[in-house]
Protein 1
Amino acid sequence: MHIRPLYAGWHAGQWRMPSSIASPCSLGRAPALPVAASRAHAPTGVAGMALAAALALALAGCASAPSPTPTPAAKPVAAATPPTASPTTAATPPQASPDADHTAGFAQWLSSFSAQALEAGIRPATVRDVLGKAQWLPRVVELDRAQPEFTRTPWAYLDSAVSPQRIAQGQAQLAAHSTALQAAAARYGVPASVITAIWGMESNYGSNFGTFRTVDALATLAYEGRRRAWAQTELLAALRIIDQGDIAADRMIGSWAGAMGHTQFLPSVFLAYAVDADGDGHRDIWGSVPDVTASTAHFLARSGWKSGEPWGAEVQLPPTFDHARADPAVRQTTAQWESEEVRSIDGAPLPDLAGASIVTPAGARGPAFLVGNNFRTILRYNNSVNYALGVALLARQIDGGGPVATPWPRDIEPLSRAQLQALQEALNRKGFAAGTPDGVMGPATRAGLRGYQRSLGTVADGYPTLELLQKLQAP
């Protein structure tokens, strides 16, 4: 659940979950520190001196203030808004180059952000002992700015995401952790196979959930500047998790983008949805399978999962189908699609869905799927049609179902980002609005391409090919 390359033109949304804000003057009787913070050493060097000064200034006004007894922190409510970077307190350095020396600049930013963390209610000891030890990681900046040269085709993505090995591993994990998975399924109404599939997609069942310290990664992104406001919000959430004692700072490990644990929750999502299912007093998505499975199911349930309703089905479209209507924004009942001669691929009845859409990830030549509410709920986890399809197909095959029946058009070569940008530029020149040329296949580009295809009298499926690019560029 983190920001990742876009495979189907869907832009990943930012997770924005709430945390309470408190004045640093209300911290006089703060509860005991988490184990990791109580064992940490005071920061040293330039960063440590800057942080010490910031802490002294921030707490100076509290000397004569009363020390009220704090109330326990409430679990966040999903609809609330998290603390965001204050323009008056947060440092705003220019975007940082990963190969430059940022020792002084990062230390200065840490000092400024430390005051902001205190204002947000993070305890001074956590600010000093956790945030104060944050490290600048040039590799995080490199990964954040890296762009793949080629876009991945849906079939290449799914070949990896729903490989025979991953299916077999998923079946083994479902059997090994049946008690935890079935308990999560019963509690939240999300099938155990779907929870297992997300686990497999996000971290390959826990074998690879990242090696970056989350505080370091998010501090680097917050200082670096390209997505400063988002990273500062997530960094505050990470500090709050440590503050609450759910995980020690040195065990808070994840991806370079700040996603954590077995199913890659961002810190703000953890605060809103993580569950202590094993009853040990900690929400541990790093080491407790019951907590991992329950937290994942809880997120899906709160995001709109409808118990007992399938995600969708592979379908066969009629020869006269208007492929411009194969769009997640076009929704109608299954009965309405059936009236247009949309049929299941295997002759079975179509699932009864109230707001169903047709998606064709590879255009008119590839498979088509009728998808409903629960498919869109998976998109809340990662806003990529290919990702949601990967989860759905992996879950189906973990349950013993079959693969996609319609062949993928594997003879179509993927366009590079430069070629996609050239296609966008050519569409704009010819009057088919494709949005800002950026090499990313989004809704505007797809709409412009469909318009151009209609002008040619061909099927308007909006799928980019080298042949279409060559026609657009022809004099």
Protein 2
Amino acid sequence: MQAQAFWLQDFFHVAEHLQDAADAIYGTDTSEARVARAEWAEILRAYEDGVDRVRRALLRHRRKLTSAAQRNRVRRVLTYLRRGKRRMAYKLAEEQHLPIATGPTEAAAKSLVGVRMKRSGARYSQHGGQTILTFLAAHKSRRFNLLWDALSRRYVANAQTLTAAA
């Protein structure tokens, strides 16, 4: 059974927004704010309806705030969570053993580009460099055969079209 693809918002980016709300409620750089952010982040990871649970908690806190500036900071986070809810399926992602943050992807990209494209004396056009990185990424991710099959079908189709036109 193959996992279904879906978009996922970087977890640590979402956690930064949660920290903004926690700072507005408990004060910037307080231990209470750090604990609240950690609890809300864990709720996002542990429950399918984690976004709804966190939003309810933030709404309860927001009602108690006396400062309009604090309420606005929390409101911005509530809006962010509401708009991005469908991209915050962290429990589902973890059940499928998928990364919930972009760190591994960014590290892999940095490694691929750094090792291959920045070698001493390496000079590539944008097209040539992209081609090399595409093949290298397919090889490293063990998807080379899939890429080769797709490319060969396209090439054969183009060659047959050109032959028929001649």
Protein 3
Amino acid sequence: MNREQAREKIIFALDVPEFSDIEKWSNLLAAKVGMFKIGKQLFTACGPAAVRVIQKHGGEVFLDLKYHDIPNTVAMATLEAARLGVKLSNLHALGGYEMMAATMDALDKEFKGGERTKVLAVTILTSSTEETLRGIGIEHSVQDMVVRLAKLARSAGVDGVVASPQEVQLIREACGPDFLIVTPGVRPAFASADDQKRIMTPAAAVAEGADYLVIGRPISAAADPAQAADMIVAEIMAVN
């Protein structure tokens, strides 16, 4: 794997509250990472303008808003995300087959087979454990639920999933080589685990078959964020 291929796998989690921070991180990391993730905090504070700033700097965006609502509402929200030109957006697989299928149908009608935003289904959050699932009445194991939800998303036409790196291999076996897998819970050796429970190093996650790695604090909290990103790229490049 060459440096550019490794760089493109990194999605930097732009978890910041201020509009001015977008310019700062875009300038610093546009050449170091493949994509910027805009989540609920930043999008609530700044709206679509946050996406446009990154695009102005030549960056790609993963709009991480995890839609979960009635089918038409999620379909229309995802359609607006696609019209913004983001590379990735997502919804919750727990919203069910009808919600996911309605979303993909809306995108297919709008873009008619052309280039469009790729949609990911969130399976089980990386902060969740089996105790978390039991607390909301789900008696299946985390791994069983992840695979079940990934297969449901695939059957609804969704492009891929967001899942812990520890479930990547199981998802690959269940959903095939062309199904996108985006993994949070990635922590290089030089970083702390923070609030993620099911974690893995970047090299291990890529070796398991992850397409993209969401990495935030190991880069943003580093003394030299650009250097930290370079270190992660080097680690990914070492994967055979």
Protein 4
Amino acid sequence: MNIAFVRRAGIVCLGLGLFTVVFLMVPTRRVVATPVGNLEACINPGNGMMRLVDASVACHANETRVEWDITGPQGPTGPQGPTGSSSGGPPFVWVCTPANYDLASGGNNSEIDIFNGSSTTANVAAHFLAKDGTNLAGSVIPGNSPAVYPGQTGSTTVTLAPQNTMIVPYLTGAGTRATNNSLLATVSVVSDQPIVVGYNIPFGALQATPCSLLPK
């Protein structure tokens, strides 16, 4: 056999072999774009190493490409959480109690103060209640006839402008609240906007007191 031919054939085979090796070492590229919200990675099954890559970056020949969603599937609905206070939204309910002392005689000038802290007009109602929940608005104040209790009944409300204070004066009544359902025990103030409520019952000295926001 011709030695020169053998040499040429060997050179050609060697060249084809090198071309094959180089071709196999060229990284593969994905043509399909990664959907928005997905992560992609290249994993080497030999050593378990993983590297995050962009959609445009190809994995090496000895790596496997994987992808997964950034946002997983919707989980089951969780249990109902504890109820919060009425500060979470309307109606806002404030309670002023005791709104009257047990007195042998009444006639002290008292008041409920309602401040609208919101940026819109509030619709408020002050309910003057006996110990059994009877609404006393318009009823004669014991020991102070013909003076009557102020306030609203039912769903009636009055408006209060933003940053304004509504002052609702009333007289303390005579008697014992536990045995007299015509005597004021508690004032409940309801509003559809955030408010702050306080009250004052003079008894020897000023007794200005903040009312309590009723939990829902």
